[in-house]
Fold this sequence. Notes:
Blueprint: E1 2-4, E2 9-11, E3 13-19, E4 25-31, H1 36-46, E5 55-60, E6 66-68, H2 75-79, E7 85-91, H3 104-119, H4 127-142, H5 166-177, H6 184-195
Parallel strand pairs: 3-7
Antiparallel strand pairs: 1-2, 3-4, 5-6, 5-7
Helix pairs in contact: 3-6, 4-5, 4-6
Amino acid sequence: xxxxxxxxxxxxxxxxxxxxxxxxxxxxxxxxxxxxxxxxxxxxxxxxxxxxxxxxxxxxxxxxxxxxxxxxxxxxxxxxxxxxxxxxxxxxxxxxxxxxxxxxxxxxxxxxxxxxxxxxxxxxxxxxxxxxxxxxxxxxxxxxxxxxxxxxxxxxxxxxxxxxxxxxxxxxxxxxxxxxxxxxxxxxxxxxxxxxxxxxxxxxxxxxx
Length: 209
Protein backbone atom coordinates (compact mmCIF):
# COMPACT_ATOMS: atom_id res chain seq x y z
CA UNK A 1 0.00 0.00 0.00
CA UNK A 2 1.22 3.53 -0.73
CA UNK A 3 -0.22 6.75 0.72
CA UNK A 4 -0.40 9.64 -1.73
CA UNK A 5 -0.52 13.38 -0.94
CA UNK A 6 -2.06 15.24 1.95
CA UNK A 7 -5.58 14.04 1.22
CA UNK A 8 -4.76 10.65 2.66
CA UNK A 9 -5.73 8.79 -0.50
CA UNK A 10 -4.48 5.23 -0.38
CA UNK A 11 -3.39 3.70 -3.65
CA UNK A 12 -2.68 0.02 -4.02
CA UNK A 13 0.36 -1.01 -6.00
CA UNK A 14 -0.12 -3.82 -8.50
CA UNK A 15 2.48 -6.03 -10.07
CA UNK A 16 2.77 -7.90 -13.31
CA UNK A 17 5.33 -10.19 -14.84
CA UNK A 18 6.69 -9.35 -18.27
CA UNK A 19 8.00 -12.38 -20.12
CA UNK A 20 10.72 -11.29 -22.51
CA UNK A 21 11.70 -12.74 -25.87
CA UNK A 22 14.41 -14.91 -24.32
CA UNK A 23 11.83 -16.28 -21.82
CA UNK A 24 13.39 -14.45 -18.89
CA UNK A 25 11.03 -12.35 -16.77
CA UNK A 26 10.97 -8.92 -15.18
CA UNK A 27 8.44 -7.58 -12.67
CA UNK A 28 6.80 -4.19 -13.14
CA UNK A 29 4.89 -2.17 -10.58
CA UNK A 30 1.89 -0.01 -11.46
CA UNK A 31 -1.23 1.59 -9.99
CA UNK A 32 -4.73 0.22 -10.47
CA UNK A 33 -5.64 3.13 -12.71
CA UNK A 34 -2.44 2.94 -14.79
CA UNK A 35 -2.56 2.72 -18.55
CA UNK A 36 -0.62 0.10 -20.45
CA UNK A 37 1.95 2.70 -21.49
CA UNK A 38 3.35 2.78 -17.94
CA UNK A 39 4.30 -0.89 -17.95
CA UNK A 40 5.49 -0.80 -21.56
CA UNK A 41 7.83 2.11 -20.82
CA UNK A 42 9.20 0.26 -17.78
CA UNK A 43 9.90 -2.78 -19.97
CA UNK A 44 11.72 -0.73 -22.61
CA UNK A 45 13.78 1.03 -19.95
CA UNK A 46 14.80 -2.33 -18.48
CA UNK A 47 15.91 -3.47 -21.95
CA UNK A 48 17.63 -0.17 -22.86
CA UNK A 49 15.36 0.13 -25.91
CA UNK A 50 14.95 3.54 -27.51
CA UNK A 51 13.26 2.43 -30.76
CA UNK A 52 10.04 1.47 -29.04
CA UNK A 53 7.68 1.67 -32.00
CA UNK A 54 8.45 -1.85 -33.21
CA UNK A 55 7.37 -3.48 -29.95
CA UNK A 56 4.29 -4.10 -27.87
CA UNK A 57 2.87 -6.12 -24.99
CA UNK A 58 0.61 -9.11 -25.40
CA UNK A 59 -1.66 -10.96 -23.03
CA UNK A 60 -3.65 -14.18 -23.23
CA UNK A 61 -7.33 -14.14 -22.29
CA UNK A 62 -9.31 -16.84 -20.50
CA UNK A 63 -10.11 -18.45 -23.87
CA UNK A 64 -6.37 -18.72 -24.64
CA UNK A 65 -6.63 -16.05 -27.33
CA UNK A 66 -3.75 -13.59 -27.73
CA UNK A 67 -4.35 -9.84 -27.74
CA UNK A 68 -2.20 -6.74 -28.00
CA UNK A 69 -2.41 -4.50 -24.97
CA UNK A 70 -3.77 -1.05 -25.85
CA UNK A 71 -1.19 1.25 -24.29
CA UNK A 72 -3.69 4.11 -24.06
CA UNK A 73 -6.23 2.19 -21.98
CA UNK A 74 -6.37 0.97 -18.40
CA UNK A 75 -4.23 -2.13 -18.07
CA UNK A 76 -6.33 -4.09 -15.57
CA UNK A 77 -9.62 -3.51 -17.40
CA UNK A 78 -8.11 -4.96 -20.56
CA UNK A 79 -6.71 -8.04 -18.85
CA UNK A 80 -10.10 -9.06 -17.41
CA UNK A 81 -8.35 -11.50 -15.12
CA UNK A 82 -7.13 -11.71 -11.57
CA UNK A 83 -3.54 -11.30 -10.41
CA UNK A 84 -0.87 -12.37 -10.97
CA UNK A 85 -0.90 -10.58 -14.33
CA UNK A 86 1.42 -11.81 -17.08
CA UNK A 87 2.31 -9.90 -20.22
CA UNK A 88 4.57 -10.87 -23.11
CA UNK A 89 7.04 -8.43 -24.65
CA UNK A 90 7.01 -9.04 -28.42
CA UNK A 91 7.72 -7.43 -31.79
CA UNK A 92 4.46 -5.90 -32.99
CA UNK A 93 5.59 -4.19 -36.19
CA UNK A 94 8.17 -5.96 -38.35
CA UNK A 95 10.22 -3.43 -40.35
CA UNK A 96 10.17 -4.01 -44.10
CA UNK A 97 13.86 -3.14 -44.20
CA UNK A 98 15.62 -4.22 -40.98
CA UNK A 99 18.76 -2.54 -42.31
CA UNK A 100 17.21 0.82 -41.41
CA UNK A 101 17.14 -0.05 -37.71
CA UNK A 102 19.47 2.36 -35.92
CA UNK A 103 20.15 0.66 -32.59
CA UNK A 104 21.96 -2.68 -32.41
CA UNK A 105 19.88 -3.71 -29.37
CA UNK A 106 16.69 -3.21 -31.42
CA UNK A 107 18.07 -5.39 -34.19
CA UNK A 108 18.97 -8.06 -31.64
CA UNK A 109 15.42 -8.23 -30.27
CA UNK A 110 13.98 -8.47 -33.79
CA UNK A 111 16.44 -11.30 -34.47
CA UNK A 112 15.29 -13.15 -31.34
CA UNK A 113 11.62 -12.64 -32.28
CA UNK A 114 12.13 -14.08 -35.76
CA UNK A 115 14.04 -17.03 -34.28
CA UNK A 116 10.97 -17.68 -32.11
CA UNK A 117 8.70 -17.39 -35.13
CA UNK A 118 10.72 -20.08 -36.90
CA UNK A 119 10.98 -22.35 -33.86
CA UNK A 120 7.23 -22.19 -33.19
CA UNK A 121 6.29 -22.76 -36.82
CA UNK A 122 4.87 -19.27 -37.43
CA UNK A 123 7.40 -18.42 -40.14
CA UNK A 124 7.22 -21.05 -42.83
CA UNK A 125 10.44 -21.60 -44.79
CA UNK A 126 11.76 -23.96 -47.43
CA UNK A 127 14.38 -26.54 -46.50
CA UNK A 128 17.18 -24.44 -48.00
CA UNK A 129 16.00 -21.27 -46.26
CA UNK A 130 15.87 -23.09 -42.93
CA UNK A 131 19.38 -24.42 -43.48
CA UNK A 132 20.72 -20.96 -44.33
CA UNK A 133 18.98 -19.24 -41.42
CA UNK A 134 19.89 -22.07 -39.08
CA UNK A 135 23.55 -21.56 -39.92
CA UNK A 136 23.36 -17.94 -38.78
CA UNK A 137 21.50 -18.89 -35.61
CA UNK A 138 24.13 -21.47 -34.69
CA UNK A 139 27.02 -19.12 -35.51
CA UNK A 140 25.39 -16.41 -33.39
CA UNK A 141 25.01 -18.69 -30.37
CA UNK A 142 27.98 -21.07 -30.61
CA UNK A 143 30.53 -18.96 -32.45
CA UNK A 144 32.98 -20.34 -35.01
CA UNK A 145 32.83 -24.00 -35.91
CA UNK A 146 35.49 -25.98 -34.04
CA UNK A 147 35.94 -29.67 -34.91
CA UNK A 148 37.18 -30.34 -31.37
CA UNK A 149 34.04 -28.95 -29.76
CA UNK A 150 31.50 -29.59 -32.51
CA UNK A 151 31.53 -33.32 -33.12
CA UNK A 152 29.20 -35.11 -35.52
CA UNK A 153 25.60 -34.66 -34.41
CA UNK A 154 26.38 -31.61 -32.26
CA UNK A 155 23.15 -29.98 -33.38
CA UNK A 156 20.90 -32.84 -32.30
CA UNK A 157 19.89 -30.96 -29.14
CA UNK A 158 19.98 -27.51 -30.72
CA UNK A 159 16.43 -26.58 -31.72
CA UNK A 160 15.97 -24.38 -34.79
CA UNK A 161 12.63 -25.66 -36.12
CA UNK A 162 9.79 -27.67 -34.53
CA UNK A 163 10.38 -30.82 -36.57
CA UNK A 164 14.12 -31.07 -36.98
CA UNK A 165 15.78 -34.04 -38.66
CA UNK A 166 19.31 -35.27 -39.30
CA UNK A 167 19.29 -34.11 -42.92
CA UNK A 168 18.50 -30.54 -41.91
CA UNK A 169 20.99 -30.62 -39.05
CA UNK A 170 23.74 -31.77 -41.42
CA UNK A 171 22.99 -28.91 -43.82
CA UNK A 172 22.90 -26.36 -40.99
CA UNK A 173 26.25 -27.68 -39.73
CA UNK A 174 27.70 -27.33 -43.24
CA UNK A 175 26.53 -23.72 -43.40
CA UNK A 176 27.82 -23.08 -39.89
CA UNK A 177 31.34 -24.07 -41.01
CA UNK A 178 31.18 -21.52 -43.82
CA UNK A 179 30.26 -18.65 -41.49
CA UNK A 180 33.42 -18.68 -39.37
CA UNK A 181 34.58 -15.19 -38.51
CA UNK A 182 31.13 -13.62 -38.36
CA UNK A 183 30.39 -11.80 -35.12
CA UNK A 184 26.96 -12.08 -33.48
CA UNK A 185 26.13 -8.60 -34.79
CA UNK A 186 27.11 -9.62 -38.34
CA UNK A 187 25.02 -12.80 -38.05
CA UNK A 188 21.96 -10.87 -36.94
CA UNK A 189 22.26 -8.37 -39.80
CA UNK A 190 22.72 -11.02 -42.50
CA UNK A 191 20.01 -13.24 -40.98
CA UNK A 192 17.48 -10.38 -41.10
CA UNK A 193 18.48 -9.43 -44.65
CA UNK A 194 17.55 -12.96 -45.76
CA UNK A 195 14.44 -13.18 -43.59
CA UNK A 196 12.89 -9.98 -44.96
CA UNK A 197 12.59 -11.63 -48.39
CA UNK A 198 10.43 -14.49 -47.10
CA UNK A 199 6.75 -14.33 -47.97
CA UNK A 200 5.59 -15.01 -44.40
CA UNK A 201 7.99 -12.58 -42.72
CA UNK A 202 6.04 -10.41 -40.29
CA UNK A 203 2.77 -12.30 -40.76
CA UNK A 204 1.08 -13.08 -37.46
CA UNK A 205 -1.19 -16.12 -37.90
CA UNK A 206 -4.24 -16.51 -35.66
CA UNK A 207 -6.16 -19.74 -35.10
CA UNK A 208 -9.69 -19.86 -36.50
CA UNK A 209 -12.48 -20.26 -33.97
